[in-house]
Specification:
alpha+beta, Jelly Rolls, 2 domains, four-stranded antiparallel beta sheet, 7 helices
């Protein structure tokens, strides 16, 4: 498990002893497809590290409408703020497929910090890096046009296939993309349709494949 933790951004640059202590205080949890892992508004007391599978991060507005704001896969994590404050969960997390997690509870984490106080500076640096990344995401959402935001989402989620194309392993609906970029489903649908017509992207079994690098402007 310590080998798994060193691949997780928040725990990078920690010593083997520190990683082993953290690993020893994690419990395992499994979630089935569409299972609610954590719920927006509930008390927050644990960090989740994804071992296998993928999840979607969902927020709701005052009317009860839900919006998918992110997806995460293996070696990513969520719920980290629960380790440093006592606020309620700010979003819900739903399993997109069968998932396995390592869960670290706040009380156990605080005991580790007492035994290994040198962990704190590294954790703060790693958390700061994450916050800066989220700030950049917000900045791009505010400053880019809708096409640029859609293109950024597609490129960010894509993986190289070895044949020059890029494959998006997450099943994305047009609504999912629209929620992420702050646009209407109809507008996103039009953008994707034009990208398909011009052979920039194609769909395979519901997954988006990027045939060639997406244009800067469209």
């Amino acid at each position: 498990m310590s080998n798994t933790l060193e691949q997780v951004e928040i725990f990078q640059n920690l010593s083997d002893e520190e990683l082993a202590a953290l690993a020893a205080n994690c419990e395992r949890r499994v979630a089935m497809p569409d299972e609610l892992v954590i719920e927006e508004g509930e008390p927050a007391n644990s960090l989740y590290i994804i071992e296998t599978g993928s999840v979607k991060i969902v927020c709701s507005d005052p009317s009860g409408n839900e919006y998918v704001i992110n997806t995460q896969g293996a070696n990513e994590y969520f719920g980290e703020l629960a380790l440093v404050d006592d606020m309620a969960r700010s979003s819900s997390v739903v399993a997109q497929e069968e998932c396995s997690f390592r869960v670290m509870h706040k009380d156990d984490f605080n005991k580790i910090l007492e035994d290994f106080p040198d962990i704190v500076p590294s954790l703060l640096r790693n958390l700061t890096r994450r916050v800066r990344g989220l700030t950049d995401d917000i900045k791009n959402l505010a400053l880019q046009d809708v096409y640029s935001r859609v293109a950024r989402v597609l490129m960010t989620l894509s993986e190289e296939t070895g044949d020059g194309s890029l494959y998006i392993p997450v099943l994305l609906t047009k609504r999912d993309i629209a929620d992420r970029v702050g646009a209407s489903r109809e507008m996103v649908s039009g953008i994707l349709k034009n990208l398909v017509i011009d052979e920039y992207i194609r769909f395979e079994d519901g997954h988006i494949v990027i045939n060639t690098h997406l244009p800067v402007h469209y």
